[in-house]
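[[Encoded backbone]]
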Amino acid sequence: MTYEAHLFTVESVIHSVHDREPEKVGAHDGYYGMAVSNVFYMISTIIVPSLNNYMRCKWLMVISTTSFTIYFLSFQFLHRYLYFFCCTFMGFGLASFNVGYLGYLTESSTVETLSSNMALSWGLSSVSVLVAGMVNFLMARANSDTGTSKYREYSEGEVRIFFAITTAISVLSLVLYALLPNKNVEASISKTCERTKSVKEQISQMTAVLVNKRILILAPFYLYCGLFFSLWITIVPTTLQFTMALSKNPYVPMLYGIAFTAGTTTMCIIIMKVSPRIPNLCGKPLMIMSAVMHLTLFAIVVCVIPEWSTVRHTDEPSLLIQPSIAPILLIAFLLGAADLANNNMRTVISSMVMPTRRQQIFGVSRCFHGMAASFLFFGAPGLSIYSYVGILTVFLIAATISYIYTCSYLEREGIEKKESETSIQEKSEDLSTI
């Protein structure tokens, strides 16, 4: 929760600190810090899965929240080099959390329940965006009369309070994860996963998975998930706080969080209700629906968000529709629905494409995620909203093609396997009658 909550405002916070004390941090160190974090996240995803040999998944989540706590504490002593150093902890912590969280989820899920469990878990996790919006709203209201800028600025007190709250939540999460039960459900997916015996073997297997034909085909989809996550969690919220027409409205962050959560909740309900009725819903059907939704979303973003509100305060007009509450709510709703669909599809396809290497594939998928996000954030200070939409549209087309192709391949493989098993069974029955 705290990870997504802080990304909601990190670039705006760093920008505000730079305006007051330029010697402490750079204007776009928020973007660069996220780039550093994602580089270490990418590296950590190759190594962290091997830790499953020495501890249960819940202890990986405990390690991750410890790393998060160190990162959030750094904002009480904010300085450029300390911030970048602590971003490495954030990258490692995020990798540990994802491997531990997805591993714990597979321990608690069967093939039949994975899709609905994933939808429910991602739906609940999206509440973090709502919490971030509400905290931002409360701070903005409390400081509404203290600033003279036309744009949303974060005072030193606001920064300290916000990150004190995220630190406290991290500590509470650490205790909660430590108290989670260890019991696996019967026929859990995790029982079919082969574990590695050492870090060396883990790196060897991760390398083998990285160059596997099936994973290379899915690479555009994994990269797109990383790009899209970066868009909704940091880029779009930053534009809202850099656009003069919206910046000083204290309700915008909260409403963004509410609409985003409503989108994830709606998609969660749709998947949970429809998946028992439509076989392989999270295969081709969801990908096609998701692609249409993403393209619609991008068209609205181009029309509503001012071109350079991604990197600086601006009062420039948007392309067609002037920024206001109604279109922002629609954008946030679609972002929430689209992100949940992405996460659900990524987990389902990763668990099916190479069943005996699920942990490695979860790690590889996140490695591609980190790679895409790091490149995007390193280039963020020079990218307009139109650039983002152009980049994501190209990757969306490639992702859709690769995902649908993989689903078709797996369907054919399943049919062939079933036919082979039927043929063997028929031959056994014939032999038994002789």
About this structure: The chain has 16 helices and no strands. The CA atoms of residues 147 and 153 lie 7 Å apart. The first helix runs from residue 2 to 7. The chain has a mean pLDDT of 82.
